[in-house]
Amino acid sequence: MLHSVKALEGATIRAIDGQIGHVKDIYFDDEVWRASYLVINTGFWLTGRLVFISPISLRKPDWPGKTFPGAITKEQVRDSPSIHTDKSVSRQNEEQYHDYFGYPFYWGGTPMWGDGLFPYAMEPYYADDEANRAGQLRQMKAYSNIEQIRRNSDDPHLRSCKTVNGYKLMASDGEIGNVTDILLDETTWAIRYFVIETSHWWSGQKVLIAPEWIIKVHWSDKTVAVNLSQDSVRNSPSYDPKQKWSRKSDIGLYEHDNREGYWPK
Q1: What is residue 189's predicted lDDT score, i.e. its pLDDT?
Q2: Per-block average pLDDT, block size 10, for the chain (265 residues)?
Q3: DSSP E strand boundaries for 74-211
Q4: Phi then psi for 141, rounded to 5 degrees?
């Protein structure tokens, strides 16, 4: 099932021993298109401090009730490394965060979450499993050149969902809409679609654009470029947020754009 990122704003995040705070934003990776962190406003508990919570830390969410139980304590959250949302989140910041919680590194592997498809499958490592951790660190060195480039630019492809709202959608032959929301896969936390509002071009229709159709997100001029024509976007199956988006809807959209689906055959 897919869920609106915008609708998740204000959702409650709970630790094992009490409430942590409420969702303020979600940071996603624009290389693998995965929601990597929830940005949580802790309110009066930590004097309004913003903290990052990885989906790895969560257990089965109550999506309709907008409540996300976690497998961590309030003390762990309180003492976790600070990550500033007013500037780029570096890979070094992420390494410190994952080291603190004992989570494996998810980057560098082929699947969406390192060696797996689901965040909850990434179990913490323990002191008696240092050999596995050392092996993982050796594997990471194989990606050292890429990671060094990312660190030098302080840009590991982590982006704010809120920031992207309002970005212009640029088709191959011109502007055709604006990003108004992002849809998440509730199981894998994958970014499945950007919701595009086209009301400036024809009467209030919303359409969906899959991340794999995006050529580039231009953060400097706030545009999302896709390798689709205006006519292709204009004639896409319409999206109604009040209606459930089904696999049949997926198939219709992907067939319209003559693309192979992301789902197993």
Answers
A1: 92
A2: 94 96 92 90 88 91 92 94 72 84 73 67 48 44 42 62 93 92 93 90 81 89 93 90 92 91 81
A3: 158-160, 168-171, 174-185, 191-197, 206-209
A4: -65, -25
Q: Give me the torsion for CA of 170, 194, 91, 96, rounded to 10°.
A: 160
Q: Do residues 228 and 213 lie in contact, with contact meaning Cβ atoms separated by under 8 Å?
A: yes
Query: Quick one: pLDDT at residue 139?
Result: 43
Q: Name the residue with tokens 């982006």.
A: 159
Is residue 54 within 8 Å of 97, Cβ to Cβ? yes
Q: CA 119, 242, 160, 50: dihedral to nearest 10 degrees?
A: -80
Joined tokens for residue 81: 């490394």
Distances (CA, A) of 135 to 67, 118, 147: 36, 21, 18
State how beta strands 191-197 and 174-185 pair. antiparallel
Collapse the DSSP code of 173 into the 3-class scheme (helix H, G, I; strand E, B; otherwise coil) and give the result. Answer: coil
CA angle, 151 then 29 then 53, to 5°: 95
Helical axes 144-153 vs 91-101, angle rounded to 10°? 110
Angle at 155 between CA 150 and CA 159, to 5 degrees: 140
Q: Which residue has the tokens 């979450």?
A: 113
Query: How many Å apart are CA 50 and CA 38, to the nearest integer?
Result: 10
pLDDT at 205: 84
* Residues present in the chain in total: 265
pLDDT at 150: 43
Write down the pLDDT at residue 154.
47
What per-residue confidence (pLDDT) applies to 133? 44
